[in-house]
Specification:
The chain is an alpha+beta fold and about 80 residues long. It is about 35% helix and about 25% strand. It is built from three helices and four strands, in the order αββαβαβ. It has helices spanning about 1-5, 30-45, 60-70; strands spanning about 15-20, 20-25, 50-55, 75-79. A two-stranded antiparallel sheet has the order 1-2. A two-stranded parallel ribbon has the order 3-4. It is globular and about 40 Å long. The mean pLDDT is about 90.
Length: about 80
Amino acid sequence: MKKTLQNVALAGRFQVIPHEGRDLILDVAHNAEGLQSLAACLEAAGYRQLTIVLGVLEDKAVEPMLAILKPFAKQFYCC
């Protein structure tokens, strides 16, 4: 069972897709706790200077989310 669980992956949770010499990183984090987890993964993997596309619902506080990801960002696109 342990070996099986080690091979389980959830699509959209720090999913890295190689594309044209770059890594596309997909993550469905939708709150501060999820973004903290994403930030920890980005830190552990050594990612910096990223172009980040972030979709946030209108009723959510976007500024705290941007602050969590700012150390890893070269630029943001928010929608």
